[in-house]
């Protein structure tokens, strides 16, 4: 059956969800045939040229209100390494990156730290701001105006108005679905203390970005305690969204390899 499905794919037939799941279970000679067919389709439609955009990484703040079981990025204000960059520090790093040939700026930050940390609220108040997302908008605008490098932001959950605002100062945005499974929110799961990791909320952000035609990066995390069936379910649901899933990331504690792909939706 697998070889029949692959022949249909090579002839341009669109797979059903059930057929795609069947291919995902291929092993041995069938798996080798799957890889060969995928390579042929890639060469036919995309070729072998891989493009990339060199980015400078800006961890705007590593404070976060979520406590994900696998995260090595977040810090509490009293922990060693806790940091929220000032605009001056952001520009210093970005200008150095520009000298080294970077053309984009990847902003990464914790989700709504002002909701639980008075230190973050005080930092924002000094700037006349209320939310970390407001500070992100300001930082993106300053980088764009002062350096000409193009921001790409991964700020966590965003509402429609947030997306509309950030669209004006970002070349693209991103939010990992991580996984569609509600099981990972249970007390034994990695997202039990992470209110912003509810799949429905994250899918809503992905869908809104698609409606606004924002170039967007999304995908799943692997190695966070999910099952193979939960992986497949996550990709199926993303496949129905307006955004094409273009990245699969391992968790920081996973030994599996990442296979990042770049796609402009």
Descriptive notes:
With 265 residues, this protein is α/β, with parallel strands linked by helices. It has two domains: 2-45, no CATH class; 55-250, TIM Barrel (Alpha-Beta Barrel). Helix content is 40%, strand content 12%. It contains nine helices and seven strands. The strands form two sheets. Strands 1-2-3-4-5 form a five-stranded parallel β-sheet, with helices on one face. The protein has a two-stranded parallel sheet with strand order 6-7. Helix 9 (228-240) links the parallel strand 6 and strand 7 (247-250). The longest helix has 18 residues, at 28-45. It starts with a helix and ends in a 15-residue tail after the last strand. 30% of the residues are buried. Mean pLDDT is 90; it is low at 244-248 and 253-265.
